[in-house]
Design brief:
By secondary structure, the chain is an alpha/beta fold. The chain has 2 domains: 198 residues, 3-Layer(aba) Sandwich (Rossmann fold); 81 residues, no CATH class. 42% of the residues lie in helices and 18% in strands. A 9-stranded mixed beta sheet has the order 1-2-5-4-3-6-7-9-8, with helices on both faces. β6, α5 and β7 form a beta-alpha-beta unit. α1 runs parallel beside α4, α1 packs antiparallel against α9 and α7 crosses α9. The chain binds S-adenosylmethionine (SAM). The site of S-adenosylmethionine has 24 residues, from α1 and α3.
């Protein structure tokens, strides 16, 4: 296990099989309410089966060539949530360091309990307790857009990567590859997020479940039927088509993620490329597949 560059505040032993290293989670570039909201979200949706992790993981990691890494390569998973992508990586890498400032880290302790090479750290993006130039690979999937200054958080993350190491990020897209109607539907739905994300946790969770059943499922049905009976291409362009092959658990989880999170930002492909380049990454490749946008770059 790597050494920390500062001492932890506490070590919690989870069910006497997994240690959680607790660090300072107070930093200027974190949204406390959003972090709290994720703690609640991931305690509700804390289990994923291995097929789900593999199938969805394959979508995020489609642009990663794992042959590029040495057998002793070390990975950092920033904003790990339940640790589902750390699990995806645990069979491919020697050591995976999974970091999250929210109580999701306790859900991660449960989900990753069998994986001895996953190390759990409760800390935030500006307080990553490792020296610069430490990691061969860093991932941050669905995280940086929930941080007030996304660019700054990305810069900090990239500093932790070794020269020549790689960084995979997934940031919510600004619908830059979508048409007018799609954008309009989205703008309308965003009004709901604004209100729902401010509700008390239990109410928010119920409202998002209602949205999952009354909005997500019917729209997914329309997109599936369109693909089946009219045109596959048209079906894949309809809202929520991404969920056509996803489980109810994932749909409910993402409904809560989408409508229950106070802070979310969206970025165009161009802006993401610019931020990645500014952070010191080059050789940037975007996946043309959903979820949009996920991209990988290499540290200069
Ligand atoms: C949408 S979840 C994604 C979790 C995980 N990457 C996944 O895809 O399953 C966003 C995660 O970012 C974490 N997060 C929010 N603010 C953060 C910060 N300042 N530093 C690190 N992680 C943060 C949240 O606690 C939450 O678990």
């Amino acid at each position: 296990m790597l050494n920390f560059n500062t001492s932890e505040d506490q070590i919690i032993e989870y069910k006497s099989q997994k240690k959680i290293y607790i660090f300072n989670t107070n930093d200027e570039n974190s949204d406390k309410i959003t972090i709290e909201s994720f703690g609640e979200e991931w305690s509700k949706f804390s289990s994923f089966n291995s097929d789900e992790i593999t199938n969805i993981g394959n979508e995020y990691f489609d642009i990663v060539d794992f042959k590029d890494f040495d057998s002793d390569a070390k990975v950092l998973d920033l904003g790990c949530g339940t640790g589902r992508w750390s699990i995806y990586l645990a069979s491919k890498f020697n050591e995976v360091y999974s970091l999250d400032p929210s109580d999701a880290i306790f859900s991660a302790a449960e989900l990753t309990s069998e994986f001895k090479n996953i190390y759990l750290i409760k800390a935030s993006s500006e307080n990553i307790p490792f020296d610069d130039n430490t990691f061969d690979f860093a991932i941050s999937l669905g995280v940086l857009h929930h941080i007030p200054d996304t660019e700054q958080a990305l810069n900090t993350l990239v500093r932790k990567i070794k020269k020549g190491g790689k960084c995979l990020i997934y940031l919510y897209y600004s619908l830059d590859n979508r048409g007018f109607m799609y954008k309009l539907v989205f703008k309308f739905s965003n009004i709901f997020r604004f209100v729902i994300s401010k509700l008390p946790a239990r109410v928010k969770s119920i409202v998002c479940d209602i949205i999952a059943f009354t909005v997500y499922i019917p729209l997914i049905g329309i997109s599936k039927s369109t693909s089946m009976f009219i045109s596959k291409n048209l079906g894949s362009k309809l809202p929520l088509s991404y969920y056509s092959d996803k489980s109810l658990n994932v749909i409910r989880n993402d409904s809560l993620d989408r409508f229950g999170t106070p802070l979310e930002q969206r970025f165009s492909k161009l802006k993401i490329k610019e931020m990645m380049e500014k952070s010191g990454l080059y050789n940037i490749t975007f996946s043309e597949n959903k979820p949009y946008w996920h991209a990988i770059g290499q540290k200069k």
